[in-house]
Amino acid sequence: MSRIKIDLPDSFPFTTTIPIRITDINYGGHTGNDTILSIIHEARIQFLKSKGYTEMELAGVGMIMADVGIEFKSELFYGDIVTASVVVANFSKVSFDVYYKLEKALRQADGDKIMLVAAAKTGMVCYDYKNKKIVALPEEAKVRLMS
Fold first, then answer.
1. In contact, 54 and 45? CB cutoff 8 Å
2. What is the pLDDT of residues 112-133, one digit of tens each?
3. Cα separation of 146 and 75, whole Å?
4. Can you give the pLDDT at residue 147?
5. Residue 98 and residue 88: Cα distance in Å, rounded?
6. Could you tell me the sign of the dihedral formed by the alpha carbons of 88, 97, 67, 103, in that order?
7. Is 60 left (phi over 0), alpha (psi -120 to 50) or beta?
């Protein structure tokens, strides 16, 4: 069976940190796949906020997730701090992709190491929630998201 492979961009202009809470831990003693999806959602919301936007207000339009891919690399445990990096790419007339790199620091005797926890990509489509239809991506939003 083939596996999802997320090719991450080289540069991520936005980074935030997200702590792992006890409620993020599943019966296996680590975070579950639903938690990783929640973390990338939180990272996207913080990224949009840094640009002056929300998912419901993107230069006059909303947005809706059309697809998501997550490549799991390592476990997260209670107390870990995730560094979530975000960048946008692949703009079309009505959509764009958001890439996420989730990492954690490992404390080791020979110095800290950074470990990739997950790579992810979401396809975001501009959407008019009132009229329930896909709409064009505003040029203002495209410019601001890339800056």
1. yes
2. 789 999 999 999 999 999 999 9
3. 31
4. 87
5. 4
6. negative
7. left
